[in-house]
Amino acid sequence: GQCASVCPVGAINEKSEIENVWAALEDDEKHVIVQTAPSIQATLGEEFDITNGTVVTGKMVAALRRLGFDKVFSTDFAADLTILEEGSEFLKKLEGEGTLPHITSCCPGWVKYAEHNYSDLLNHLSTAKSPMQMFSALGKTYYPQQSGVKAKDVYTVAIMPCTAKKFEKDREEINATRFKDTDAVLTTRELARMIKEMGINFSKLDDEDFDELMGTSTGAGTIFGTTGGVAEAAVRTVKEKLTGEPLEQLNLGFRGVNFAEVEIGDRTVKIAIANGLGNAEKLLNACKDGNCDCDFIEVMACPHGCVGGGGQPRPATYEKKVKRGVGLSGIDDKSAVRKSHKNPQVIKLYKEFLGKPLSGESHHLLHTTYKSRPKN
Ligand code: SF4
After folding, report:
1. Is 352 one of the catalytic residues?
2. Ligand 1, atom 6: nearest CA belongs to which residue?
3. Domains observed in the chain
4. Is pLDDT of 375 > 90?
5. What does the CA dihedral 46, 49, 51, 53 come to, rounded to 10 degrees?
6. List 47, 85, 86, 190, catalytic entry
């Protein structure tokens, strides 16, 4: 309104998150840690004219260090953690405790849509927070405990594929610590802007590695960034935990709605994935009407998952998104460790801090609640 153009409060509200992050980086009192979502490593290069689909993890880490971040960590680490929490939850449901089908909750675009339009399915949603929020809750508890940095001085930045993540960080019920768990969310394009503002020659950077403690991930954590990845990562862990046998490739397709069946012990587990809300509706309406025999449903609001997120480099054609997804799968294929429960830093985290999946501390820091919102 009229006020917005002159009112200083309006101006503050509109202040770009980039400025907040620059201010934190320049503040000597603040210890700024950053996490990058799985998809970013396969998309950021496009902003610097690097061939679409090229994985630029090492250059991305090097650029973040040059921007002044004190620690450069990976959301993929927390994606592995999500699998342990969500996988344990799904296991319980398979054993009769809880409501099937189990529906994923790591995409805030989908969660908000469900709160508005599918409130009677909210009890199917995993209570596990998204990897971003799990990471941030640990960033203000576990990280200070391990590093000696005071929790009040830690400032957490998340590089994410979409602006739905900006909404997610401000959800009332999401904070688990005395602080704001996630202080700032930047999209891939916003990060690229900062790198350009700083005059960093991105394509010439030498590769660097993520920092220890919350930077190691498995291939399973990485494929969270593309459609079908969460389902595949979860079933890898659940099947092996239940039967001791490894999972064969799931072969979930890239388009629309896809199904797969997996034999786990004497049970056939039916999995469905939907990317794009229009596709999700078909599946969810069947669930609502009691016509769905699936056990596990992965929903991503964006067509093709986070590689197609609204904060990613533009233009994002179908071919480009496919190549980004192929880039992420390539990381998974080449990973020495491809199962979340084998991530050594996640094992350490449980041993030294959380106890076990679904423990009291895990529930407090890593799980959340949902609420019905007016239909839109
Ligand atoms: Fe964000 Fe889209 Fe990924 Fe959901 S699927 S988390 S809305 S980028």
Report:
1. no
2. 107
3. 14-212+220-366 (3.40.50.1780)
4. no
5. -10
6. 86
